Amino acid sequence: MALGMGAAFVSSTIAATSGVAPTESGLASGLWTTSQQIGGAIGLASITAIVTSSSTAFFKTIYVPGASVKTLTAEATVHGFQSGFLLAGYFALAASIVAILFIRAPKPVPEPQPLPMSGAPDVAA
């Protein structure tokens, strides 16, 4: 996971900030970092909610009075994590589709031209 995340973070940061004017590179980097942090928090909260609700619902459907609660709890937990990993897979698929459809090769950014000095004599004559 560490190798995959390292490769994904570096390449996605390069993709997010390439093609941006040098004067706006800090802004682009900040927006990318903010969206990455907020997206991770919302994604984790969503997956946790799905795992919890799925485990609880599954436990209620399989609970039989007199059965081993420890075994049923383990089964419900596995079911909840399975639902959470499935949702995480859907998130990854959606992100891949968005990347394929919307990320294009960067266009070269022209170098900024110096502004003419005001009040300077015109030497073109």
Outline the structure in words:
The protein is mainly α and 125 residues long. It has a domain at 35-103. It contains three helices and no strands. The radius of gyration is 26 Å and the shape is rod-shaped. The model has no long low-confidence stretch (mean pLDDT 84).
Shape: rod-shaped
Q: Number of DSSP strands?
A: 0
Question: What level of helicity do the residues show?
Answer: over 70%
H-E string: HHH
Gyration radius from CA atoms, angstroms: 26 Å
Strand content: under 5%
Q: What is the overall pLDDT average?
A: 84
Q: Catalogue the unreliable spans.
A: none
State the major sheet.
none
What structural category characterises the helix and strand content? mainly alpha
Distance, first to last CA = 67 Å
Counting DSSP H or I runs of 4 or more residues, the number of helices is 3
In short:
The protein is mostly helical and about 120 residues long. Helix content is about 70%, strand content about 0%.
Features:
125 residues, 0% strand, mainly alpha
SSE blueprint and pairings:
Blueprint: H1 2-17, H2 25-62, H3 69-102
